[in-house]
Amino acid sequence: MSDATTALLAELGEPADVISQLTPDEAVTVLTLYRKARQTRRAELDTAIDDTLGFLPRLVRIPARKIMFGK
Prior knowledge:
Helices cover 73% and strands 0% of the residues. The protein is mostly helical. It has one domain (3-69). Helix 1 (3-12) runs parallel beside helix 2. The longest helix has 30 residues, at 24-53. It starts with a helix and ends with a helix.
């Protein structure tokens, strides 16, 4: 099993056997696409959260963020 296949299995938590059937090049491609999609979704979520908190009055934003995320 290639390093990319092992990394992909670790990322996805051992899904169907199809992952282990990928060639090393296919595993690299799928892993790269998966990580890019995850990074894009995370950025979109951060933007959505910031936009939502932007509707709150300024003095309420910090406590609301702390309540929601413990930060």
